[in-house]
Write a structure and sequence with these properties.
With 102 residues, this protein is an alpha+beta fold. It has one domain: Herpes Virus-1 (2-Layer Sandwich). A hairpin with a 7-residue loop joins strand 3 and strand 4. 26% of the residues are buried.
């Protein structure tokens, strides 16, 4: 962890928040489709939808057979995603393997 990231992490923790050095990847994105792109292409079913906050790709969650949101991270390195489920407002960092503040 870079010294700047360490200071930001301590600052965030003191305020009851989480800090992730990968948040710099986040962009203003629009969902690339109305469902998991890979599941739609192959006829698979998904459980929950996730959106990549770097490029807008829509994939399915870890509980889905395809795990396409994780596959997208593995292919691209795009670290931050958020839930597309109604009523859910959380983000997740694949690199840090932890949920982030909204």
């Amino acid at each position: 962890m870079r010294p700047t990231d360490r200071l930001l992490s301590l600052w965030a923790r003191a305020r009851g928040r989480t800090y992730c050095p990968h948040l710099g990847q986040v962009r203003a994105v629009e969902p690339s489709s109305s469902g998991c792109e890979a599941c739609l292409a192959t006829g698979m079913r998904w459980v929950h939808l996730r959106i990549c906050l770097v490029c807008g790709q829509v994939g399915c969650c870890m509980a889905s057979k395809g795990k396409h949101a994780l596959a997208h991270f593995d292919e691209t390195g795009h670290a931050i995603m958020r839930s597309l489920e109604p009523g859910e407002d959380w983000r997740y960092c694949w690199v840090e393997w932890r949920q982030l503040d909204p």
